[in-house]
Each structure stands twice: as structure tokens, then as C-alpha cells.
Amino acid sequence: MIEFHLDGGSGLSPYQQLVRQVRHALRLGLLHEGDQLPKVKDVVAALAINPNTVLKAYRELEHDGLVAARPGVGTFVTATLGGGGSLAALGPLRQDLRRWLGKARRAGLDEESIEALFLSTFRSAAREDIA
Amino acid sequence: MTALRAQSLGKKYKRRWALTGCTLDVPAGHVTGLVGPNGAGKSTLLNLAAGMLRPTTGTIEVCGGVPGSGPAQLAKVGFVAQNTPVYAGLTVDEHLRLGAHLNPSWDDALARRRVAGLGLDTAQQAGKLSGGQRAQLALTLGIAKRPELLLLDEPVAALDPLARRDFLADLMETVAEHGLSVVLSSHLVSDLERVCDHLIVLVESQVRITGEVEGLLATHHRLSGSRRDLDTLPADQHVVSASHTDRQTTVLVRTEAPILDPGWTVGRLTLEDLVLAYMSNPTAARPALEVLR
Amino acid sequence: MTWLTWRQFRIPALAVYAALAAVGVVLAITGPDLVGRTEFTGDAESLYTGTMLAMYLLPAVLGVFWGVPMVTRELETGTHNLVWNQTVTRGRWLAVKLGTGALAAALAAGLLSLAVGWWASPIDTMASAQPENALWTRISPALFGARGIAPIGYAVFALVLGVAVGILLRRTVAAMAVTLVVFAAVQLLVPVLVRPYVLPATEEAVTITGENITRITGNQAGVIESIDVAEPSGAWVLTNETVDPSGAAVSPLPDAVQGCMPAPGEGLPDRQTVVGCLTQLSDLGYQQRLEYHPADDFWPLQWIETAFFLALSALLARFCFRRLRHLS
């Protein structure tokens, strides 16, 4: 059973954060097919957030085909993300990243600027994904 | 299904209007935050909804009935007043018995479970409880009568951060379990952000803005760019607040349409930013009040 | 609602009833001593005065300590926000509390009056037999309100008055003071303005004879202002005045009899002489007019007064219910 947390500075709304955390957990193999997601009641009691927020997140995951709600029982994982396929892609992606980092340093960016550039692009891209 | 509907609701005390021209449509099944500065009329609105006060002008309808109009209506609405009053001389157990005797729809098992879960000593006199415990006791009394709508007037104002968190977490768990509608007033916007999916901003006895939180955040933007005259803005962008330096103009607008002007840098607002903007600009130009869904 | 009413009321109620029980014990112990006596002085007199005081104070105490806090306590602690949001209307809430309070008050006053009535019956017998002991008659204004069933009416009235003032003023201490003042004012005014006239008084024209003059009143200048004649025993006398042949009261007495009293400095008056001299009034056509309520009027007056106060209570109660709706 995964545990949710909320990050006040992430720039994402709470329900978006919950969706991402489930997807993340799926990718990392923390959640398998057939696992149950935490009950709305328990998420809400732990985080002090609105139940509709959790429901909205679970609905979106269901819409994406990742989970399915069984009325009266709970919400269960029905599919995984990435898994084996993404492992193969990791190697080339890592190499691309090293090359990009080299370019950034040669352009004169220090560590902080590289991090800032990466994060802001990453976040705005993520927002565009979800919006 | 409407939890609360008000039409031009107004309340006058002697010479002062505590609430004027209040028109609201609060849907059921949501947690609605009522936010505004002290003296804005939040308590007045909640008291009117509970039937503790009678309107001077306008109408108010709660869960389909007139507030305070008899036992059936009283059973539908739970109210926890400011400072969470309890009978200092009665024990916790006696408070629960009070609830059981005075409410036909009292769920005693729920009440006892809550009290046990909160770690309250049933033989303890209510006057000797801490502030947080009193608030929880008052909330228990409000919840165990199984109302359709729960009204909370600044329930966490006097609580420390941990007690506040526990109270809200507990409230949310109850909402999740029973599908309760809640209207809670607070001047701590950070609490409301997590807990509310609907918002009413009340400033100087008037409703400034109301609607679904998601919708409000999606339609309000902070625009910053080179200094310009506000008249140049398109008609569908309503200015909530604006500030200028010699070179820069920053303006907070409400609009349904996308921002097309490339000269603006568009920023996201937090709920706190939005509320503060409305609270600090009581005379901001606003069109006839709209309810955003 | 009855559970809550009792839970909130139990201490004030028990306090009063315990005090009454104590008084009852004292009366029970001293009662048998009084039987058969015709003279009540010393201890008996003090005890009687004490119980009369208690009877008069009881309604005031009930109004102030039972009536006023019923509403003001809830308003001052804010618990009205709690209890008026349970599934019980304000009307029903007040009806149960007020009804219980009124019944308890009526019972308290009734029981105490019963005990006192039993204890004081030898005194009453004596008072109705001996006209000189007019102060002891229970129909007299000083004692009327402390005997019979009138205290029941006062107690209920004081209680409802306390609640009404509490609803009006909303503060405990201020309401207690005002209740006390208003109640005292009513208690002082009713015997003077209302009670004498609710039943027709018996009127008698009495011939002034040497035997029946009981008192001669004069002023410092030696002028005789009025005389009193013997009054019926056990009665409440409203008027005892000399009237001329046409029926008009005269005071001071006509010049014809002013000579009956020796002028100051001429020595002490001799009663026989003065009285004999005053009987001239009869020859001159003067009579003494007596207006009084005989001892038999006691119970009719008691019923009327009790009904009057209960009616006042009902009006006040109606006010309470209507005003309560607008409280917040």
C-alpha cells in the first residue's frame, strides 16, 4: 500500500500530485497489478484534504486505464507503466543526458543554473502534458 | 442538490448592515470555505443559515427548508458556533446523553466511537478540557446528529497547529464516510486550500466572489509586463487588483478566455493570493456578481 | 428535554427543597407547643415572624435564583448556540424548563404554606376571637401574602418574571436586581391598589357610644383629629372614620367636641370624662363608618389574588415565548 504526501511548493494542485505519485509508484514497481490503492477515507485522514480531490485523482487514473474502482470494495491497479520496456530505453537516455549536461557546462552555466533550467522546463512540460 | 441558497440576503443590527445583497448557491456534497476579514459577516451568514438569526431582507434556504423552522429543519443542519461552546458543568458522557435525548436521529455508536478515538475521558467535565478537545467534542455533537449540512464558525481559530491538523483531518474523514456537506469559515486560507473545493469570499458584508476552487484558480491569473494603462485590456478581462511601478504593471485578472497578449508574463495564483487580492480591494471594479462553476 | 432540564435544575431545586425541609422540621418540633395557648409572646412570636419572612422571601428567591439564570446563563456562556441547534425548538425548550420551574415553585410555596398554616392555626384561632390582636389576623395586609394559597401565585409569578427579565436584559446580575425590584414593587402595590377592591367590602354604620371608642387621635396643638371604634375581630379594616349626617367624613372632629380634650398644660385627660364627652357626637347626628373585609373573606380574597397572579404569569409567559424567537 503506498502512502501519499503533498508538496506545497511543487506548483501542482493536490489532485495532480496524487496522480503523479501513483504513476511514479507504478513506474518504480512499488505498485503491481491487483494492488489496492489507499481508501479515500484513509488518504483524507492522513493528509487533511478534501475527499473530492482524492476521488478526482482516482477517476483520472481510471480514465487513463491504470486503475479500476470496485464499488464498496476499493480502487485497484489494473495495469502497469513502463516496466520492462523503459529499462531498455534507460541506457541511451542516460547518454543523451550526459551529452546535454556537457553542452550546458561549456555554455558557461553553473550547477544552480543547470538545475533551474532543467526543473522549470520539466515542470512546464509536465503541466502541458496534464492540462 | 443545493445545500444553501441565498437571495439578496441581508441582516441589519441596529444601524449597521452586517450582511447585504448576499446571493449564493452552495451545492451539496462539497466542503465550502467561507473566508474574509474579521467583521466581514461570516458569523452572521452562518448564524442565518443555522436559524439562530432571522434575515432583515432577502431569503435563505438551507437543505430545501427555511432555517430554524422546526425540528425537521433543525435535524438537517449541524452548527458549531465560534469558541465551540459546551456546558462546563456537564461531563463528556453527559454531553453525549444530551445529544441522544434531544436528537431523534442521533447516532450514539458513532459518537462513542469518535470520543474513544479522540482519547477523551467520558467522565471528564467539559470545562476542564483543552481547547482542541472542546472543539472536537462540539464537532462530535454536530456530526453525531447526522445532519445533511454542517456549519462551522471558525472552528480552528483557537487551536494550535497540531490540533488544527487533527481537527481538519478528522472532519475530512467524516465527510468521506458520510457524504456530508460542510460550510466552514476561517481566516486561515492555508487550511482552506487543502480542505475546501468551494469558496465564498466575504468582504465588508458583501460576497466578493464565489465558486468552485478549481474553477477560480483556472480563471484568475497574475499578469506582469511593461507599464500600461488598464483601459487597454480586453473587455472580458476583469481586473481584480493592479499595481504599477514606473516601468512595470502587475495586474490580477479574472477571465474565462485565454491570455493572448504576448507582452504579458502569466503567473499562477495560489488560493491565498486570490483571496488576499479580493480582500484587499473591496472597491475593485466588478461586474454583476457571477457564480463560477 | 426533561433529562436536560433536570440535570441543569437539580442543584438549585434541591437547595431550596432542602432549606424548606429544614424549616419544616423546626415547625414540626415547635408546633405542638402552641396548641391550646392563647398568648403568643417571646419565642412563639419570633418564630411566627420568622416564618412570615420566609414565606415572603421564598417567591423572590425563586424568581432570582431559579428564574433569571434559566435563560441568562445560557446566553452568557454561549451554550444557547449549542442547545438551540439540537433537534428541539426554542419554544419547546422554554416550555419544558419554564413549566418545570413553575411547577416546582408552586409546589415549594404550597408545601411551606401548608406547614406554616398547620403550625399557626392556634394563633389564627386566637386572633379571630380577640379583636385587640388585630395584628395577628391572617387577613391583615402584613400577613395575608404569607398565608394560604397566595404564595403559590406569587412564586409562579416571580419565577416567570425572572425568566422574562432575563430574556429582556440578557445579563444575570442586572436581571436579578431588576427582578427583585419589580417583584417587591408589585408586592407593595397590590395590597393597596388592587386587593381592597376585588370583593365588595362590608359597610357598617356604628353609633358612637362610650363603650366602643377605642382610640382618640390628636395633633400637637391639642386638636382631636379622629376617633376609632371597636372593630370586628379577625377582620381587615379599610375605613374607621367619623361621618356627619350627610355621610361625609370629618377630620378634625367638629368644634362642638373639641372641648372634650383638656388643653395642653391643663393636666392629664381622664378617659371616662373624655369618652363620655365625645358621645355628644351621636346626639349631633354623627356616626362612625366602618368598611372592612370580615375574616370569612380570607379565602375568597386568597383565590382571587392567586388567580390574578397566575393570570399575570400567563401574560408574562406569552411575552417570554414571543421574545425568545428574536434572541440570538
Can you describe what's shown?
The complex is a heterotrimer of chains A (131), B (293) and C (328). In chain A, helix 1 packs across helix 3. By secondary structure, chain A is mainly α. Chain A has a two-stranded antiparallel ribbon. With 293 residues, chain B is of the alpha/beta class. Chain B folds into 2 domains: 203 residues, Rossmann fold (3-Layer(aba) Sandwich); 78 residues, no CATH class. In chain B, the strands form 3 sheets. A 7-stranded mixed beta sheet of chain B has the order 5-6-7-3-8-9-14, with helices on both faces. A 4-stranded antiparallel beta sheet of chain B has the order 11-12-10-13. In chain B, helix 4 packs antiparallel against helix 5 and helix 5 packs parallel to helix 6. By secondary structure, chain C is mainly alpha-helical. Chain C is built from 11 helices and 5 strands. The two termini of chain C are 20 Å apart. The mean pLDDT of chain C is 87. Chains A and B meet through helix 2 and helix 3 of A and helix 6 of B.
What is the topology?
The complex is a heterotrimer of chains A (131), B (293) and C (328).
Chain A: H1 14-27, H2 40-47, H3 51-63, E1 67-70, E2 74-77, H4 84-106, H5 111-130
Antiparallel strand pairs in A: 1-2
Helix pairs in contact in A: 1-3
Chain B: E1 2-13, E2 16-27, E3 31-35, H1 42-50, E4 57-62, H2 71-76, E5 77-80, H3 92-102, H4 108-118, H5 131-144, E6 149-153, H6 161-178, E7 181-186, H7 189-195, E8 198-203, E9 206-212, H8 213-219, E10 220-226, E11 238-244, E12 248-254, E13 265-267, H9 271-279, E14 291-292
Parallel strand pairs in B: 3-7, 3-8, 5-6, 6-7, 9-14
Antiparallel strand pairs in B: 1-2, 1-4, 8-9, 10-12, 10-13, 11-12
Helix pairs in contact in B: 4-5, 5-6
Chain C: H1 2-34, H2 43-77, H3 80-83, H4 90-129, H5 141-144, H6 150-169, H7 172-193, E1 202-206, E2 213-218, E3 224-229, E4 236-243, H8 255-258, H9 271-278, H10 280-283, E5 287-293, H11 298-324
Antiparallel strand pairs in C: 1-5, 2-3, 4-5
Helix pairs in contact in C: 1-2, 1-4, 2-4, 2-6, 2-7, 4-6, 6-7, 6-11
